[in-house]
Amino acid sequence: LLWVLLLSTFLGLLLQRLAARLGVVTGLHLAEVCHIYYPKHPRRILWVMIEIAIIGSDMQEVIGTAIAINLLSNQR
């Protein structure tokens, strides 16, 4: 599973770099570019997918924190 972590970190860095370049060239952030270039229906699909990804990421952090606190407090 370590390779998944390394791959996702690399892809995240790549996405951040591409978004930064887009912002420098156009003067707009990624959401503004999507609003301009995508029709209404695909924008809503993108919005739902992003919201699901954010919820999944937040759940992962909360569950990981709960497991870490449980392990550190030695409760069974």
Automatic annotation (TrEMBL):
It comes from the Eukaryota. One of its GO terms (cellular component) is lysosomal membrane. The keyword Membrane applies. Pfam families: Nramp. Belongs to the NRAMP family. It is a multi-pass membrane protein. Its main location: membrane. One of its GO terms (molecular function) is iron ion transmembrane transporter activity. It comes from Chiloscyllium punctatum (Brownbanded bambooshark). It is found in: Late endosome membrane; Lysosome membrane. InterPro entries: NRAMP_fam (IPR001046). Residues 1-20 form the signal peptide. Keywords: Ion transport, Iron, Iron transport, Lysosome, Membrane, Signal, Transmembrane, Transmembrane helix, Transport. The lineage of its organism: Eukaryota, Metazoa, Chordata, Craniata, Vertebrata. This is Natural resistance-associated macrophage protein 1.
